[in-house]
Amino acid sequence: MKTNRREFMQGVGLVLASLLSTRCSPRTTCYEPIQPTPTAPTPMPTCYTVVPTPSPQPSVGQSKEWDSLRQPWHDLDRLAQDAPDLERGEKTRERLVADHQRALDKLVAAGDLDPIVAEEMQAAFEGAAYHIWRANAPMTCYESVPFPDYQVESSSDLARQADMLAEMAEQSAIDEATVTQAQAAIERDVAFLAMATDDQRALLEQVHEADNGTHDFPRLAELDMDVPSESVEAARILVELLLERE
Amino acid sequence: MARPQLQTLIFEVTQTCDHACRYCYNYWTHPTTSRKLKASGKLKDLRPLLAHVLDQVDCNLVTLTGGEPTVRPDLPEIVSFLAERDVRINLITNGHQLTEGATADLIRRGVTLFELPLLSHHRETHDALSGSVGAFDAVLAALAHIRYHRGQAVTVFVATRRNIADLPDTLKLAFAFGARGVMLNRFNPGGRGASAIDELLPSVDEMRAALAVAEAASQEYHLPISCSIPIQPCLIDTSRYPHLGFGFCAAGSDRAYYTLDTEGNVRPCNHTPTVLGNAWDEPFAEIISPARLATFQTALPPFCAPCTLRDECQGGCKASAQVCYGDLHAEEPFLHHNRDLARAGAAHLDAH
Prior knowledge:
Oligomer: heterodimer
Order of helices and strands of chain A: HHHHHHHHH
Shape of chain A: elongated
Number of strands of chain B: 13
Strand content of chain B: 15-25%
Distance between the termini of chain A: 30 Å
Radius of gyration of chain B: 20 Å
Helix content of chain A: 55-70%
Radius of gyration of chain A: 19 Å
Helix content of chain B: 25-40%
Largest interface: A-B, 44 and 56 residues
Strand order of the largest sheet of chain B: 10-9-8-7-6-5-4-2-11-12-13
Structural class of chain B: alpha/beta
Shape of chain B: globular
Order of helices and strands of chain B: EEHEEHEHEHHEHEHHEEEEEHHHHHH
Structural class of chain A: mainly alpha
Largest sheet of chain A: none
């Protein structure tokens, strides 16, 4: 399965979040909070199974900085608890993402982590946090349905929307003025995102090139190994980091 | 008495509608539960009623619905009034009256989220289910206006036997028009829809197939999809669709969506004709007190009594049972028409 780098890392984050959450049950969502147990539970395969390969290096989790990085992952439980309240959930998610970024920045500054790997790790955490928030946010008939982050990943959605609009315009013989307006809105949003940061512009171009029509999050075991080495490294470090506490 | 905290308040600003949806759940479109509100020649200012209710509760989300709310010429003023009170506003509309100017104005005034039906990618199917020629073109135009003016919209797919096969391409269409989410609601008979059960009620297999489609689409398009109308676990194992949101009847819980009409009548939800009290006559907290809600909240079909999930599932939508069969304790149509499957499913649940 082909996947772009960011999607790969989001998938990794999702796998890791599942690893941390041994709380799946058939009647609730994966991440429904339960009362904490007095001791850390034994990791069990949940919806998403990961079998990490032990690696001798680098040594992680041995300092306060690594603890700070680990903490947001363990606080995903808190996010699951807060998410039913839309406002609080959003705030918690933003805080955790910021905490994770801050911890990474410190490790990079200390020379403990390569900046590119750190970027991948952040993508993984953002993917995990989004998934948990999404799984627990109240979305019923009459509440605001939360929408995906209007961040870099939206650029890929915009590109797909443009393609899809062209396809559906023809298939459903949609009024030309309506299509023109919808297209204009997409183009404007793409332009907006492209202007925001150089990275976003570059990503959009990559998405145009790499999009093969499927955006499924792959399970770790299914991943095509044609993945950037920095992404693999980031995933490995994260797994190691999180398993250490377990 | 403690000040009630409402996640949302549904406000039916009119019973009038410019569509005649085959699946309409509004109780007043049903021949036996119909209770037409007094229609006066002069348009009543609804702001005093809203102020009266909002002064008594903590609620930062009001959903404006109907009928069709956009037929009210004073809708923009109602929106502004709520926005000034720092209340978020959802607008449930068929989109037919949403010209570009009207859409931009409503967004500017504070509508947070538009909720629009998108029933098919086929014009004929959407129009037929809406009971209105031109509905398809109008709703797509409305979605384009909303997107262009930086509003937020979710689309609603009411899954009926007539359109359920169109779900894959309809989800594509929703995604293409920038929908922020999709509500995949199985047809829930009530109102006018109660007379179309045989024609419209999807089978369990059809719903399973639709959920599988939605599950894949949710991942492919990064599109949140939620199923607001309860689906009984004895009929469909919803845990097979982890990317979809599911819910059960929230009446009486802290997620309840109490419904207010223009006369001040308060109901447990917008599907039921049951009136708990009138906001002009009694304190809101009294109207929604547990004692007042007990009859509605505890209603359960005898068929469901042995089920271990009865407290959670509550048999599905009791309001639908009430409107269709005249009894809150009746089996609602989706359950009633699939009793054998439900019995087998319940046995399976027990075994696991």
